[in-house]
Design goal:
Blueprint (H helix, E strand, L loop, with lengths): L1 E2 L2 H6 L7 E4 L3 E5 L5 E6 L9 H6 L11 E5 L5 H9 L4 E6 L2 H4 L14 E5 L2 H6 L5 E6 L14 H10 E11 L3 H14 L4 E5 L6 E6 L8 H14 L4 H30 L1
Parallel strand pairs: 1-2, 5-6, 5-8, 6-7, 8-9
Antiparallel strand pairs: 2-3, 3-4, 9-11, 10-11
Length: about 270
């Protein structure tokens, strides 16, 4: 369904199926009339419009040119399109379990499947549980009209995500919900990835983005990250500098909290 004026949108009551709202500047994918799931500029269909998608691309700070990327959740294809256009060396597989969402791909200028891009009508849980290959990057951004599906935020799901990554693979998760939910999901990710996790607030939204690594990439020095940022900024019109600053700040905070906890434990033991 295509809605093209604000009066139609305010009166619309969705049955849980995705629909498109279009104005003179953008096209958005929504499940109801209160929240935008994905948004695209009419004049720049491959640009990243929503702040959380820019933050999720922060994985480039640790891996500038991944060969394999898996995504859970297609939406309007913002992340898939950006990676397809700007990371020409990457092969991309996207798992989307809602055929109604996939059916809208042409409205968002999502490229046809080819040797580099494959969009599967598949639950993300099955993608990681029965993977036919390992991935350097795994982007988890799967939502339906009720929010974050339980099968995409369970402990076993995050355990499977860990297993499907290459030895230095990175998972990036878009977390949305109340503080208690986000804290619970983050604790599960920490458990699956043995604490190798950095979580930051997304740009311009209430989302939290968690970066989890199977190897040591998240431990790159501040200097290495900021040096690599200069190379990335020349090729990616993204607000990666702000994301980098948020990641480095959070990493310092996490180290300070860990040191304080250790000190407190030592005092209690003494």
């Amino acid at each position: 369904m295509l809605l093209d004026n604000i009066r139609e949108l305010s009166a619309f009551s969705s049955d849980g199926k995705p629909f498109i709202y279009k104005n003179s500047h953008s096209v958005s994918l929504q499940f109801d009339n209160t929240a935008v799931q994905s948004e695209m500029y009419v004049t720049a269909p491959d640009a990243l419009l929503l702040g959380y998608t820019v933050t999720m691309m922060g994985f480039l700070l640790f891996n500038h040119s991944p060969d394999t990327i898996a995504m859970i959740g297609l939406g309007g294809g913002s992340l898939a399109k950006y990676c397809y256009r700007n990371l020409p060396q990457s092969s991309i597989v996207v798992a989307e379990n809602n055929p109604d969402v996939i059916a809208l791909r042409d409205h968002f200028h999502i490229p046809e499947d080819d040797c580099r891009l494959e969009i599967r009508c598949q639950d993300g849980r099955d993608l990681v549980r029965h993977a036919d290959s390992d991935y350097e990057i795994l982007l988890v951004d799967g939502f339906d009209h009720t929010g974050q599906p339980p099968q995409l935020c369970s402990q076993s799901f995050y355990d499977d995500c860990y297993q499907v990554l290459t030895p230095e693979g990175i998972m990036v998760v878009n977390l949305l919900g109340n503080s208690a939910d986000k804290a619970l999901y983050l604790d599960r990710i920490q458990h699956s990835f043995d604490g190798a996790v950095i979580a930051v607030d997304a740009l311009e939204s209430n989302n939290m983005i968690a970066f989890a690594c199977k190897g040591q990439l998240l431990e790159a020095s501040d200097q290495a990250i900021m040096s690599g940022l200069k190379d990335l900024e020349s090729g990616h019109a993204l607000l990666l500098r702000m994301t980098a600053q948020n990641i480095l700040r959070q990493r310092r905070n996490d180290k300070l909290i860990a040191a304080l906890r250790l000190s407190a434990e030592q005092l209690r033991a003494g």
